[in-house]
Structures are given as structure tokens and as C-alpha cells.
């Protein structure tokens, strides 16, 4: 029998597997690149800091643990989101909802539209929710005999999620809506020309922003769907037995009450009472602070409350939580590395060197596109929208004023840049790949192509915003 040749996607996936190490090694390589650039471009000392400049060693050491709180927030968001989805009531509801699509195309459309909408409402909801939705749809598709390539389906859903991530909860939009915050990031002269705040409605909901995002999502969907591996391919990576077991795992609902300890562990009163308290607090905060004040902590509080209420018994909650812990190892070990990269960028002044290089070629017409490219480039080294904005704001806001460009345009341009290179950064694929039980290298062919096309699209699109 003639051996079937691998298709282009399989060959590209094999190529990335040969040349790209695991995600933690990539993080270390990025750190080495930043260190070399800092020494070469800023003359940063390696060990001993000077009066005006931190050394490489001090920049790393003083910033290494700065993302511990954020690491725990991301771990909890990932685990709690999975527990909510696996809880008995949610599993039934998701199963019925995700059983609606009856064709492969319908499965892709349903997953991407729902995930994209969730992502626009809140990036964390979309980020974790999209994989929960994708897994349920893949299970239902498998039950109907529909063949879906798992890495491609996860990649497509998550990339669309990224394309639609510049809604009300995006970091720079939330910063802009916080009274006085943008002014605190710039010099007094620049601050005097800024409004006290820019509302979420006037930034995230401006028609050209929504149209730009929707067109980008549609373009990405068409592109990625065209790249879908053929169902009859020998190397088709569909639903495996291991994935099916993981995706459909349900907790033991039996309630052993033979001892006091077991009665307490299986007490629905405890679960509902504690969950209800958490939900009341979160909802109260949402009412008093508004959507602009709804951050990752509030999101996690709602998830925590939902987990307890939906699981009913503390034992079920604990078992599901333990099952989901393995998917977040990357957050724990990689976030300190990215915090160190962030420290070297700011401590040595490398961020100023890079920003000045971009700003030196800007004009009123080209500035939104240049700001987009700069944001996308810096995101590779500092893949945290909130942290990176603090680096960029002291430079991009003054030049925005000098060139008479609308600050709302630059806030969106910044966010679009984040979205695109997030596709390439292992940092953002930790949760999707971990939750879906797929190898990071399997999504890279789709991510690289989508990133390249989106960079061209947004660079051109932002040129017409002025």
C-alpha cells in the first residue's frame, strides 16, 4: 500500500515541532534576546547598577515576582472556568446548546460567533469560555459522526476570540475610563491636554472600532476555515479516546453520609451558602462600580460563587478543582520569566530606545498604524496588555497629541496590536492548549498565518482611521 504523504499543514506543524522548543524554553530565549538588546543598545551594566540605570541582574531580580498576584488570578480563572463547565448543571446545558450545529461548518461558526461575542464582552470570559465551548462542540460533533481536527478547531476558535478582545474590559480602555489615570502616566504638559477620562462607550463602542474588529474576525474565519485539514487525511488529528474521556469527565454525584465528615463534605447547604455570599458580593460590586470596575478579581469571585452553587457539594467542587489544576502549570512557572523580561525592558531603558525608533518615523497619517506595529512588536516581549500600556503610555500619548491624532484612535490601535502577536506568544496558548489537551506546536501553523495576515490588515485599516 502506498504511503500517504503529509499535507502542507502537517509538514508545517512538523517544522515548528523541530525548530520551536517548548513554551518555557521560548520564554527563556526571549529573555536572553532582551538582555542582549539591552546591553547593545543602552549599555546596561550586567551586575552592578548605576545611579541612572539598573543592571541586568538587578532588573531581573527586582521584577521577577511582580506578577505573582496576576499568576494566581489567571490560574484561578482557568481552573474555576473549567469547574463551572464540568459542574453537573452546566455540563447538561452546554451539552444541549453545543448539540445545535449539525455540520462541520456550523460547528465552526457556532463556536467562533459565541466565543467572539463573549470575548468582546469580557476578555477573560472569552479567553477561558471559548475553549470550554469548543470542547463541548467537539464532543457533540464526535457523537454525530462529524470529523473535526482538534488543533485546528481550537486554534480557529481562540484566534477569533483574540480578534474580538478589544471590548469594554480591554486594559487600555479600562485605564482610559478611569478618571485621572491617563494623566498620571504622562508629564504635566501632556496631561493638561487630556480629558479626565474617556468612556468605554466612546472608545470601545465607536462604530469604526466595531466594524474593524468584525471585519478582522470574518477575514480570519474565512482564512482559517480554508486551511482546515482534509477529513480523509491519514494524519487527521481528530477526537482521540484520551481527549474524549477528558472532555466528558463527570464527577461522582453519590452522597455518602455514613460519617459526620462525609456528611459535611456532601452538604449542599455549605456549598450554596458560601457560593451565594460570593455571588452577592460580586454582583454588589458590579452594581456600585459599573462595568468599568469589573476586573479579573470580580470575574473570579463570580466564577468561585458559581462553582460552589453549581457543584452543590464541597466534595464535588474539590474533586473537579484538583482535576483541572494540571492545565495551569504554565502560568505558575512562566509568569515570573515574563515579569523579568518586563523588568529588563524598563529598568535598562530599552523600552525608550525601541519606542523612540518607532516614533522618529511617525506622521499624523501614519501614526495609528505605527503605534499598532509598535504595540504588536513589544507584546512579544511583554505579553500583558495592562503592564505593557504602562510602558508605552509615557511615549505614545505625548506623540499622539503632537501629531493631533485622536487619543481614542490610539487606544484602539494599541489594543489591536496586542491581539495580533498574542497569537504567536506561548504565554497566551498555555490555557487553550492545556485545557484542550493538545500540543502547542500543533496550533502554530494556523497562528503564524493568521498573525501575518492580521498585521497587514490592521496596519492598512488604521491608516484610514485618521
UniProtKB/TrEMBL annotation:
Assigned keywords, A-Z: Membrane, Transmembrane, Transmembrane helix
InterPro entries: SCFA_transpt_AtoE
Signal sequence range: none
Membrane spanning residue stretches: 20-44, 64-85, 97-118, 153-177, 197-225, 267-287, 299-316, 328-350, 443-465
Protein name: TIGR00366 family protein
Organism expressing this protein natively: Bariatricus massiliensis
Amino acid at each position: 500500500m502506498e504511503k500517504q504523504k503529509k499535507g502542507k499543514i502537517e509538514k508545517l506543524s512538523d517544522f515548528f515541532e523541530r525548530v520551536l522548543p517548548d513554551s518555557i524554553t521560548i520564554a527563556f530565549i526571549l529573555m536572553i534576546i532582551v538582555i542582549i538588546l539591552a546591553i547593545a543598545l543602552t549599555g546596561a551594566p550586567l551586575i552592578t547598577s548605576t545611579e541612572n540605570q539598573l543592571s541586568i541582574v538587578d532588573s531581573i531580580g527586582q521584577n521577577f515576582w511582580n506578577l505573582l498576584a496576576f499568576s494566581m488570578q489567571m490560574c484561578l480563572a482557568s481552573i474555576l472556568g473549567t469547574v463551572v463547565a464540568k459542574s453537573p448543571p452546566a455540563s447538561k446545558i452546554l451539552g444541549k446548546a453545543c448539540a445545535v450545529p449539525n455540520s462541520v461548518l456550523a460547528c465552526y461558526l457556532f463556536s467562533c460567533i459565541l466565543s467572539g461575542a463573549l470575548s468582546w464582552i469580557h476578555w477573560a470570559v472569552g479567553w477561558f469560555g471559548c475553549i470550554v465551548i469548543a470542547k463541548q462542540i467537539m464532543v457533540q460533533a464526535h457523537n454525530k459522526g462529524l470529523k473535526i481536527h482538534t488543533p485546528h478547531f481550537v486554534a480557529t476558535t481562540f484566534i477569533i476570540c483574540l480578534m474580538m478582545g478589544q471590548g469594554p474590559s480591554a486594559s487600555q480602555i479600562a485605564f482610559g475610563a478611569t478618571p485621572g489615570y491617563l494623566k498620571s502616566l504622562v508629564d504635566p504638559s501632556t496631561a493638561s491636554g487630556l480629558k479626565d477620562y474617556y468612556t468605554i462607550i466612546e472608545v470601545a463602542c465607536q462604530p469604526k472600532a466595531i466594524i474593524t474588529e468584525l471585519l478582522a474576525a470574518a477575514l480570519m474565519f474565512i482564512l482559517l476555515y480554508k486551511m482546515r485539514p482534509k477529513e480523509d487525511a491519514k494524519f487527521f488529528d481528530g477526537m482521540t479516546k484520551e481527549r474524549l474521556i477528558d472532555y466528558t469527565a463527570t464527577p461522582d454525584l453519590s452522597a455518602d453520609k455514613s460519617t459526620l465528615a462525609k456528611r459535611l463534605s456532601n452538604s449542599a447547604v455549605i456549598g450554596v451558602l458560601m457560593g451565594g455570599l460570593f455571588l452577592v458580593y460580586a454582583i454588589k460590586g458590579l452594581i456600585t462600580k459599573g462595568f468599568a470596575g469589573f476586573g479579573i478579581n470580580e470575574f473570579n469571585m463570580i466564577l468561585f460563587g458559581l462553582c460552589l452553587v453549581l457543584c452543590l457539594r464541597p466534595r464535588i467542587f474539590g474533586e473537579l478543582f484538583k482535576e483541572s489544576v494540571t492545565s495551569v502549570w504554565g502560568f505558575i512557572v512562566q509568569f515570573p520569566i515574563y515579569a523579568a523580561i518586563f523588568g529588563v525592558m524598563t529598568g535598562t531603558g530599552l523600552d525608550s530606545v525601541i519606542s523612540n525608533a518607532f516614533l522618529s518615523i511617525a506622521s499624523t497619517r501614519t501614526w495609528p498604524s505605527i503605534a499598532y506595529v509598535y504595540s504588536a512588536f513589544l507584546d512579544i516581549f511583554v505579553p500583558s496588555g495592562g503592564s505593557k500600556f504602562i510602558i508605552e503610555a509615557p511615549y505614545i500619548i505625548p506623540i499622539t497629541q503632537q501629531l493631533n491624532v485622536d487619543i481614542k484612535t490610539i487606544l484602539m490601535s494599541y489594543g489591536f496590536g496586542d491581539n495580533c502577536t498574542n497569537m504567536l506568544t506561548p504565554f497566551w496558548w498555555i490555557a487553550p492548549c492545556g485545557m484542550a489537551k493538545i500540543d502547542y506546536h500543533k496550533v502554530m501553523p494556523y497562528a503564524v498565518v493568521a498573525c501575518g495576515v492580521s498585521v497587514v490588515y490592521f496596519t492598512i485599516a488604521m491608516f484610514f482611521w485618521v
